[in-house]
Fold this sequence. Notes:
The chain has 470 residues and is α/β, with parallel strands linked by helices. Helix content is 46%, strand content 13%.
Amino acid sequence: xxxDLRIRLLIVDDEESIRRLCITVGEALGFICTEAESGxxxxxxxxxxxxxxxxxxxxxPNMSGIEFLERVxxxxxxxxxxxxxxxxxxxxxxxxxxxxxxDYISKPFSPLxxxxxxxxxxxxxxxxxxxxxxxxxxxxTETELHGIVGTSNKIQDVLRMISRLKDTRTPVLITGExxxxxxxxxxxxxFRGPFANRPFVAVDCGSLVPTLIESxxxxxxxxxxxxxxxxxxxxxxxxxxxxxFLDEIGELPLEMQAKLLRVLQEKEVRPVGxxxxxxxxxxxxxxxxxxLEAEYRDGTFRKDLYFRLNVVTVHLPSLRERRSDIPMLAxxxxxxxxxxASIQITSAAMKALLQYEWPGNVxxxxxxxxxxxxxxxxxxxxxxxxxxxxxxxxxxxGDGDAPMRFSPPSTTDLEDIExxxxxxxFEQVKGDKAMAGRMLGISRATLYRKLKxxxxxxxSGLSSIAxxxx
Length: 470
């Protein structure tokens, strides 16, 4: 299981022996375990890495377990908190449960199996709550998650990650090939969470002019350079309180990577031409189609920035890795570009879509469906409506929507494919135009227009097409 999907357990106790014992049991259950010796240290750690389960002592120096519980439930309401008490104070434990604690367990743990079962029950509750929320969200996945569509295991893992990350401020690095939908995931993480009404600023790092990157990101003062006629806030300031999405982060030059790292560490920016620093509170979501780990090893990307951004990674699979989602995606895009038209896709066209390698991923599939709607009859999508590179994937495959037994011509020219298809159907129905229209899924008017265009139905037309069908 990916580390990002495992249960995270935080132990808070001023006794190291208790922390080590709990960690040993937690790791045996497959949890990712962290520890803190005080409530203050635990709260600081939770800012960077929220935990699903927190086990805290009741009596600690400075901040008590009760005070820590109240702070956690206010700031991280989805975390399950249980309290440990070694003083037999049932009243205090009951008070903790009234404040939202999951349960309490007495120290020392005797037998140790009691602690193991206690943690397992907490984990089961966390998983049940997350699964119920995930299933509720799936009802409207297509519309609510901004076009992230699919039922394959890999895309469902992505949706689960979005569900977990939306309530946090943790930095996220989204990886995947171009066209896989990295910005869609960034938007879903932002707009599905409690910060949806705050700014979301998308920055294409690859499109920024090198000499102007700093002023675009951090702003500038009036007179800072030629053309700076007035003070302008940078994109980090615009996004303050919300999310900044740094797309293609690997395109940033090394000099800017150092300045970006300082902003992430200090949570402040210095506009160009100013001596004053401006505080910014912004969640950073970055994306790349590069292997940043390999690049930092080669010295082309800063190692410290990589680890600062790479707190949680969401990897988007290529469309080749989730072919089972292609039919759902294709129909989603058809509905998007022809609402209510209920356009259907023939078996031959669908087989071509499933066989194509999709180097441009989901974006290329969307463009193909938009093209099919624009050029087709808005009733049915056949091979002739697909781009030549996609349609050519169906060579040698029969059309399961009609009893046709032929191999399309070897040429990838779209018009030749369309003409050969119509010719074969016309021959099979012995010239019955009404039946040919039904088999092709097009209206009679469209059929007449195409018959005339390709000179089909006359002796000269038959003789000129025959060689292409051999």
